[in-house]
């Protein structure tokens, strides 16, 4: 398909602005750019058709089953979009006088109250723009805590399990910490002995997601947080997998000191092709003085912003974060409410277990037993003995109109496929998808060679990633 | 698998060619390049950098993985193979021709393997 | 209670039975019983869609939507062509995730590739990434890109946006790296002071163009100085002004970043916005986050993929230079649609109108006694005046006319902004109110 630049015709364009009604000014020549930016010249019809064609060559939750493990691809309610587009939110300047933005600040204060109750925390910030940004903020709170106790230079190690998301160790490194990776036990959970050996006077904290990336709720969680606390470290909860337990179990009650939530996963705000998200961060009261400024405050029905926190870590983003994403999440929480939130969690877990049960007819499940919102399959034996891999299964699914599960994660499971169906899939959708997964498996056993040539029905076939990385072409240029 | 007899090998799959003038060439073994798959980029040290045995001095990237290259000895970098920066695939095509760095050896580690030992070691690892 | 579930009670029973359970409680048998919330969440019961719409609308109604805005300071109201929201609300663009499966994600990948190309064109730089959170975090990431083993200190112009300075400071503190502020002189980065601060420990220098006061810096001269000292130049640029002002590439920047909100995103009380990042080829592999590249598929057809992924956290883990995963993809698409619709002449026209209206407004305001222009330098669409009356009285009077005045500065001045949206009539009304209040 042609790019916008190849569709450009010199002299084409649309009229969006009236004539300038004041005398025209030009910059002095020595400050001016030498040539115009070579943007495409298109009619509005060209633009409209181009993006409609691109939309047809993409795949969203609206198109079908999207069991991308760890990403919680649930249905994105349309009322949330409508609310976010209200001019009373979308047209508000972030530096308007406080008295003219009371509704926006109330969105912040009301959300804080709700999310504190859901997480078992005492204070929240909505400044971080995504999960990884939330992790960064949370670990900085931990860093500040140790600095304030004059232990900053001593407590520099962050413990992460080897099943963790890559963002966890990368976050620790960005916060000037060294990463200590501990192996998971046979059961996929934290190995308590290994944890005891890892903690010490140099421990800044532990980063953990529970349920973990294998979809297992770590039953020893209270013991885990206790071990870290007794060593003088703090516990960080990666909220990537909160969807399984929201409204039923709270990170604060598990012993965690701070937490980030992915509003674009758990609270149904859309993923937007990779963002914008929101990585709200909550913490216990003793960490609250370190939160990014400003904080929204509500007193006597009067909303205000307070930046007067001398011990704050500072700011991690301009203004107050991805505000309209929060507006959507708040709309979602008000819709589900106290009954609906745990109800959604339960259904996510039910869907995952049902789907796992159906697939286990052919696929090897990495860890048996009841799973939470997701589960991991391994095709290690198939790869060794039958000549087809997790990648082959994924590509075959593409031809059948299904988005594959997350591939090759977590790293501790070989030839992994991680599936998370979410609560918004119907039983029929799960059954239909399971039938396809099983049929693809049979096909692969019969003809593994054919699998390497799939997909065949998609807009493109397998791309050459090696040449893409060896000879990067990262922008369009004339003469291609 | 190709394992030239004149080279020494480390457990982390680097080869070393010790030269008579006290310098050495270091590269990645055939076994390593097969395991890594098609390489797309190499990160190499700068001339003059010190490398320390058992510590990473660079890394190599495939599309979906990155792997440290571990120094098999102590030394000072004399030369880096600039050609690999443009054509990392040379390591896949000719792992023993595509050396990564040349070093002035300060301390040579004792426990490097011979070609036979290394072949046995790889067979074990498979 | 509202919900988005599809499973009926009957189906639930069938599914439980299929997995050999009697109740949904049994799904949570691994959870220690003392952890399970006994009385549920202490939050209100759920609502129907209509009730929620009313509730949220009442919150929105507590905000004042100003028909006329003369405030910028990092968030700008521009005209957004109708095609922009028509495209960025397409359901598949909204609900897709990161394009991990290239074969069914060409639409997302190509839109990012086209965005990257446009950012390169605006900045003159060689390569762009797929976006980061906002202009401030882009600046902080750029500072990290420039750090080397022996050079770790970042210098930041005090004439940059205060939020940008604050975010760079937080990131530097996190990384245990030093950050120092370069003082300003007459609203511009003090070049002599900068010269004295540059040494062999400085890795990068951040300069805003135009700066927080709207002034255009002598970026080329600063760039030369920075490079002579062996450090790298990071420029934070306004993407609308970029249509007119000398590009970061022409000024010798190593990294160009900026806040992309002006490219088709509404004010939104501060977000979601768009952080753009572009660099020279030499810095390509230090760019954080996702990058889309062009290649071919097994049939030899054009294909787009996420590339250079070995830089990123999911592969490099603690050795990755950034932890960024999700970015602002839909905002990047928004910016691309905006730029495609406006085209080179349209963008230049918008920028010229911003420039012209700001200059008309500056001349009119500064003609009022006490509202003199504070700085002499050339400016784009923002400028600072003094203010002879109390901020409160002034802004209340403006608010009555539906006008959001400029940003009051702590030292008494006011930072004004005009864009192509502001008509001469609006500016004249503003001026008459200022005159009235100051003559009282």
Task: Compose a concise summary of this entry.
The complex is a heterotrimer of chains A (480), B (126) and C (440). With 126 residues, chain B is of the alpha+beta class.
How many structural domains can be distinguished in the coordinates of chain B?
1
Radius of gyration of chain C: 25 Å
The CATH superfamily of the largest domain in chain C bears the name Type I PLP-dependent aspartate aminotransferase-like (Major domain)
CATH architecture title of the largest domain in chain C = 3-Layer(aba) Sandwich
Q: Terminal Cα separation of chain C, in Å?
A: 56 Å
Could you characterize what this model shows?
The complex is a heterotrimer of chains A (480), B (126) and C (440). Chain A has three domains: 1-20 and 39-57, no CATH class; 79-336, Aspartate Aminotransferase, domain 2 (3-Layer(aba) Sandwich); 346-460, Aspartate Aminotransferase, domain 1, CATH 3.90.1150. In chain A, 37% of the residues lie in helices and 11% in strands. Chain A has helices at 4-7, 44-56, 78-84, 87-90, 102-119, 131-148, 167-174, 192-198, 221-230, 251-254, 323-359, 380-386, 390-399, 427-446, 448-451, 465-470, and strands at 123-125, 157-161, 178-182, 203-208, 234-238, 258-260, 281-283, 295-299, 302-306, 364-365, 375-378, 406-407, 416-419. In chain A, strands 1-7-6-5-4-2-3 form a seven-stranded mixed beta sheet, sandwiched between helices. In chain A, strands 10-11-13-12 form a four-stranded antiparallel beta sheet, with helices on one face. In chain A, helix 9 (221-230) links the parallel strand 4 and strand 5 (234-238). In chain A, helix 3 packs antiparallel against helix 11. Chain A is globular and about 75 Å long. Chain B is an alpha+beta fold and 126 residues long. Chain B has one domain (9-110): OB fold (Dihydrolipoamide Acetyltransferase, E2P), CATH 2.40.50.100. Chain B has four helices and nine strands, in the order βββαβββββααβα. Chain B has helices at residues 30-36, 83-86, 89-93, 115-125; strands spanning 8-9, 14-18, 23-28, 39-43, 50-51, 56-62, 66-70, 74-80, 101-107. In chain B, strands 1-2-3-9-8-5 form a six-stranded antiparallel beta sheet. In chain B, strands 4-6-7 form a three-stranded antiparallel beta sheet. Chain B starts with 7 loop residues before the first strand and ends with a helix. The mean pLDDT of chain B is 92. Chain C is of the alpha/beta class and 440 residues long. Chain C folds into two domains: 68-78 and 343-439, Aspartate Aminotransferase, domain 1; 82-337, 3-Layer(aba) Sandwich (Aspartate Aminotransferase, domain 2). Chain C is built from 13 helices and 16 strands. Chain C has a seven-stranded mixed beta sheet, with helices on both faces. In chain C, helix 12 (391-400) crosses helix 13 (424-439). Chain C is globular, with a radius of gyration of 25 Å. The model of chain C has no long low-confidence stretch (mean pLDDT 97). Classes of the chains: A alpha/beta (480), B alpha+beta (126), C alpha/beta (440). Chain A binds chain B through residues 408, 465-466, 469-470, and chain B through 38, 40-41, 61, 63-64, 87-89.
């Amino acid at each position: 398909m042609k790019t916008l630049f190849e569709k450009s015709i010199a002299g084409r364009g649309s009229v969006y602005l009236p004539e300038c009604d004041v005398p025209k000014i030009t910059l002095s020549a020595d400050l001016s750019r030498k040539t115009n930016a070579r943007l495409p010249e298109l009619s509005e019809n060209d633009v409209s058709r181009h993006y409609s064609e691109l939309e047809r060559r993409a795949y969203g939750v609206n198109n079908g089953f999207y069991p991308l493990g760890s990403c919680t691809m649930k249905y994105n309610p349309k009322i949330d979009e409508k609310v976010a587009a209200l001019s009373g939110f979308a047209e508000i300047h972030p530096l308007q006088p406080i008295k003219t933005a009371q509704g926006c600040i109330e969105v912040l204060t009301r959300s804080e109250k709700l999310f504190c109750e859901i997480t078992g925390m005492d204070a929240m910030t909505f400044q971080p723009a995504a999960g990884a940004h939330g992790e960064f903020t949370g670990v900085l709170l931990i860093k500040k805590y140790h600095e304030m106790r004059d232990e900053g230079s001593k407590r520099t190690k962050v413990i992460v399990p080897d099943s963790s998301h890559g963002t966890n160790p990368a976050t620790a490194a960005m916060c000037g910490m060294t990463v200590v990776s501990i192996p998971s036990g046979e059961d996929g959970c934290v190995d308590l002995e290994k944890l005891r050996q890892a903690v010490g006077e140099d421990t800044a904290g532990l980063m953990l997601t529970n349920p973990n990336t294998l979809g297992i709720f770590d039953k020893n969680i209270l013991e885990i947080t206790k071990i870290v606390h007794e060593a003088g470290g703090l516990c960080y909860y990666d909220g990537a997998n909160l969807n399984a337990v929201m409204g039923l179990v709270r990170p604060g009650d598990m012993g965690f000191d701070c937490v980030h939530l992915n509003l674009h996963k758990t609270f149904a705000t859309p993923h937007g092709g990779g963002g914008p998200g929101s990585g709200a961060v909550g913490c216990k009261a003793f960490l609250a003085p370190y939160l990014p400024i400003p904080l929204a405050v509500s007193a006597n029905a009067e909303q205000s912003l307070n930046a007067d926190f001398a011990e704050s870590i500072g700011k991690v983003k301009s203004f107050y974060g991805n505000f309209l994403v929060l507006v959507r999440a708040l709309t979602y929480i008000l819709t589900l409410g106290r009954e609906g939130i745990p109800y959604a969690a339960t259904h996510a877990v039910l869907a995952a277990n049902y789907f796992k049960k159906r697939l286990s007819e052919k696929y090897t499940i990495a860890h048996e037993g009841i799973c939470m919102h997701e589960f991991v399959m391994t095709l290690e034996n198939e790869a060794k003995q039958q000549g087809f891999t997790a990648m082959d299964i994924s590509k075959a699914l593409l031809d059948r109109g299904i988005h594959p599960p997350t591939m090759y994660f977590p790293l501790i499971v070989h030839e992994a496929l991680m599936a998370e169906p979410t609560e918004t899939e119907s039983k029929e959708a799960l059954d239909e998808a399971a039938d396809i997964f099983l049929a693809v498996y049979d096909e692969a056993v019969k003809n593994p060679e054919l699998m390497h040539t799939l997909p065949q029905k998609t807009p493109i076939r397998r791309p050459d990633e090696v040449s893409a990385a060896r000879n990067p072409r990262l922008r369009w240029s004339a003469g291609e | 698998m190709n394992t030239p007899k004149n080279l020494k090998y480390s457990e982390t799959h680097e080869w070393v060619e010790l030269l008579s003038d006290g310098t050495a060439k270091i590269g990645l073994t055939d076994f390593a390049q097969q395991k890594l798959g098609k390489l797309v980029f190499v990160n190499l040290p700068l001339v003059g950098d010190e490398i320390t045995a058992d510590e990473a001095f660079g890394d190599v990237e495939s599309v979906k993985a990155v792997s440290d290259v571990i120094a098999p000895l102590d030394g000072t970098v004399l030369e880096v193979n600039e050609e690999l920066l443009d054509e990392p695939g040379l390591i896949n095509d000719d792992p023993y021709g595509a050396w990564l760095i040349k070093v002035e050896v300060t301390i040579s580690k004792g426990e490097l393997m011979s070609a036979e030992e290394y072949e046995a070691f790889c067979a074990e690892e498979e | 209670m509202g919900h988005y579930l599809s499973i009926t009670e009957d189906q639930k029973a069938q599914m439980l039975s299929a997995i050999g359970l009697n109740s949904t409680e049994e799904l949570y048998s691994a959870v220690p019983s003392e952890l399970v919330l006994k009385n549920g969440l202490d939050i209100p019961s759920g609502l129907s869609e209509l009730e929620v719409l009313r509730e949220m609308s009442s919150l929105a109604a507590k905000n004042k939507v100003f028909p006329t805005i003369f405030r910028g300071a990092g968030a700008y109201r521009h005209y957004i062509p109708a095609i922009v929201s028509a495209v960025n609300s397409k359901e598949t663009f909204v609900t897709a995730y990161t394009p991990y499966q290239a074969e069914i994600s060409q639409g997302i990948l190509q839109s990012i590739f086209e965005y990257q190309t446009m950012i390169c064109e605006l900045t003159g730089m060689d390569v762009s990434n797929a976006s980061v959170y906002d202009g401030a975090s882009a600046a902080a990431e750029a500072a990290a890109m420039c750090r080397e083993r022996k050079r770790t200190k970042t210098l930041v112009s005090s004439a940059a946006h205060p939020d940008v300075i604050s975010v760079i400071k937080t990131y530097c503190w996190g990384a245990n790296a030093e950050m120092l502020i370069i003082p300003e002189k007459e609203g511009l980065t003090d070049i002599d002071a900068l010269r004295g601060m540059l040494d062999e420990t400085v890795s990068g220098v951040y300069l805003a163009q135009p700066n927080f006061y709207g002034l255009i810096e002598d970026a080329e001269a600063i760039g030369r100085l920075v490079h002579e000292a062996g450090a790298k130049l990071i420029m934070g640029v306004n993407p609308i002004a970029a249509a007119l002002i000398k590009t970061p590439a022409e000024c010798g920047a190593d990294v160009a970043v900026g806040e992309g909100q002006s490219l088709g995103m509404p004010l939104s009380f501060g977000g979601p916005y768009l952080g753009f990042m572009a660099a020279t080829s030499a810095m390509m592999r230090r760019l954080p986050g996702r990058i889309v590249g062009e290649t071919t598929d097994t049939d030899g057809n054009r294909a787009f993929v996420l590339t250079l992924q070995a830089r990123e956290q999911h592969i490099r883990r603690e050795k990755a230079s950034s932890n960024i995963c999700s970015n602002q993809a839909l905002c990047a698409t928004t910016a691309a649609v905006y730029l495609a619709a406006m085209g080179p002449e349209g963008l230049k026209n918008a920028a010229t109108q911003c420039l012209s209206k700001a200059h008309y407004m500056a001349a009119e305001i500064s003609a009022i006694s006490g509202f003199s222009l504070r700085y002499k330098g050339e400016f784009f669409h923002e400028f600072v005046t003094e203010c002879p009356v109390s901020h409160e009285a002034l802004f209340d009077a403006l608010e009555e006319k539906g006008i959001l005045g400029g940003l009051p500065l702590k030292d008494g001045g006011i930072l004004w902004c005009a864009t192509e949206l502001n008509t001469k009539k609006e500016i004249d009304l503003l001026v008459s109110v200022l005159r009235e209040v100051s003559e009282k």
